Amino acid sequence: MLIFTACAPEPDTDFDLSNAHIIDTRERPQWAIRHVEGARHIDWDCIVLGVQELGIGESESIVLYGSSASAAGRAETSLRNMDYVKVRNAGSLDQAADLLGRPIVRPEVTAPDADDEAIHAACTERRQIRGGL
Question: What is the pTM of this model?
Fold first, then answer.
């Protein structure tokens, strides 16, 4: 009899919600219109590249949210496959705001910072290399 076990790390129970990195995985224009206070934007399909660009370590707490729980779940799976263990899928924008106890901000103008621009550029380049996928 063969027994298969999952290679993904077990979720860490020592999750620090108050100091977690908050990442919005929705489309960039959605993030620019409204997002959870303190959230960074990384497209779900560039999540691993994005957290590495930001210098977020595998043992740091990360809260993800997206258009839905399943959208954020794709990003969560990608991170867990790369040995990130303190990852929590908060679901949608409203669910994340409730979980974190933070307001949803609607800035008049949201100028991306240098890190956001670098991540967006690297993600765009990666998509072009992969043939626009």
Answer: 0.76
| 121 phi, psi to nearest 5 deg | -65, -45
Architecture of domain 17-129: 3-Layer(aba) Sandwich (3.40)
H or E, element range at 55: none
71-103 pLDDT, tens digit per residue, is 899 999 999 999 999 999 999 999 999 999 999
User: Per residue in 17-39, pLDDT tens?
Assistant: 889 999 999 998 998 899 999 99
Helix (H, G, I), strand (E, B) or coil at 89: strand
Provide the β-strand partners of residue 89: 64
**How far is 29 from 41, CA to CA, in rounded Å?**
10
- Domain boundaries defined on the chain: 17-129
Helix%, strand%, coil% for the chain, nearest 5: 40, 15, 40
Q: Exposed/middle/buried for 127, CB within 10 Å: 0-12, 13-18, 19+?
A: middle
- Per DSSP, helices labelled H in 59-113 are 69-81, 93-100
